[in-house]
Every structure is written in structure tokens, then in C-alpha cells.
Amino acid sequence: MDGNSFAPFPHHRLQAYQVALDFVRLIHSTRIEDAEMRKHARGSAGSCARNLAEGSGRRSRADKHRCYSIALGELCEAVSAVEIDNGLGGCPDDHLLAVHLLGSRLNAMLTPLAR
After folding, report:
1. Closest CA to 27 of 87, 65, 74, 79
2. Predicted model pTM
């Protein structure tokens, strides 16, 4: 094995994880003016992806569901922070729409995993 290759981790097989990474990138590029809302949105988006990765590495069904449920909650928190900033006149409507669209896609993927 050379220095540029690695064995895939369990989370690399999850399509939801790839979408979560796209969501993290979107949140980081979204103009969120309120510093507290920006901090929460970015932290929650990253936590969503991390909990997906953690859940994929768990062996028991209950552990997996717990991690995926946390990921779903973190997604909701990230979207909410952007909505709050938008409501305060910060985040532009088109940025909020992009967050809603990708967030809805990720929500649809996470909901069955969290059950």
C-alpha cells in the first residue's frame, strides 16, 4: 500500500455521508451574518457528518440508530440556525433555499437510518 491509498472506512460506503459532506461545504459557504448562528450552523453540520461516520462504524443496531438519530438532530439544528439568521435579515433568501433543498435531501436519507 503506497502513501496515497487507504482502505475505505465504513462511512465511505454511505451515500448519506457524501451528501452530509456536501451539506458541510454548503453551510461553510453560506453567508450567515450572526456570529452565534454561524458557529452553530457550522458546528452542527460537521457533527451531522461525524455522527454518520461514527454510526457506520458501530456494530450493534441500537448503537447505529443512536448515532444516526443524533446526526438527524444536528442537521435540523444547522438548518434552524440558517433560518434564524435569515429571519433576522442576515442570510439571503437564495442561500436559505439552497440549505433547505440539500438539507431536505439529507433529511430523507437520514430519517430511515435513524429508525
Report:
1. 79
2. 0.93
Mean pLDDT across 18-32:
98
Q: Is the pLDDT of residue 23 over 80?
A: yes
CB 113 within 8 A of CB 55: yes
Question: Number of C-alpha atoms within 13 angstroms, CB side, residue 65?
Answer: 6
Domain boundary assignment for the chain: 12-114
> How far does the chain reach from its first CA to its final CA, in angstroms?
38
For the domain made up of 12-114, give the CATH fold. Answer: de novo design (two linked rop proteins) (1.20.1440)
**H-only helix segments in 3-92:** 15-29, 35-57, 61-87
- DSSP-derived 3-state class of residue 3: coil
